[in-house]
Protein: Xanthine phosphoribosyltransferase
Amino acid sequence: MKLLEEKIRQDGRVIGTEVLKVDNFLNHQIDPKLMQAMGNEFAQLFKGQQIDKVLTVESSGIAPAVFTALALDVPMVFARKKKSLTLSDENYTADVFSFTKQETNHIIVDKRFLTAGERILLIDDFLANGQAVEGMLEIARAASVDVVGVGIVIEKTFQKGRAILDEKGIHVESLARIAAFEDGQVIFAD
Ligand code: 5GP
Structure:
């Protein structure tokens, strides 16, 4: 997606050889017009899939996921990372190792928000080693919902997440694909 690539070139900051900081439009401050355009793009890419719900993980997946859900006119559910007093005891859970934080998060979805047989689209901000998506897939399996595909805002093709999902035969669409970071510059894959 041209608009996103331009934004990454303009505002993204490369940290070392593996991490992109995009906290001024995606991970901390949010650019709502860009999020809306991305939501429309995901809705277009997964058109005709009869999606019932969008699922993501808090917090960075929420903005792109909610605009995707808006474009598809369906609800959006986000997996929580912390158990709160208001959360019921009837949950689906999975452990997700965070690539950027180097810690394991327990992700939680209330059973009331996923119904067996529903067709679910997974959305996340980044695809690196695939841990976050695998956690969502585990929850989807436990809930007996069908995952129609995975929408990723920024995929890093040099990490193993994409290969893992391809091996499972999952339909993955990424709005920007990064092949490498070289001398602090982003090298796009296509
Ligand atoms: P994975 O689970 O695929 O290894 O990593 C994806 C998760 O880690 C995303 O939800 C995202 O929050 C975080 N992440 C992975 N790589 C990056 C990166 O280069 N920059 C940022 N800002 N987050 C990343």
Remarks:
- The beta strands are 13-15, 19-21, 53-57, 76-79, 91-98, 103-110, 119-127, 146-156, 172-182, 185-188.
- The pocket of guanosine-5'-monophosphate is lined by residues 19-22, 27, 60, 98-100, 124-132, 161 (CB under 6 Å).
- The longest helix spans residues 32-45.
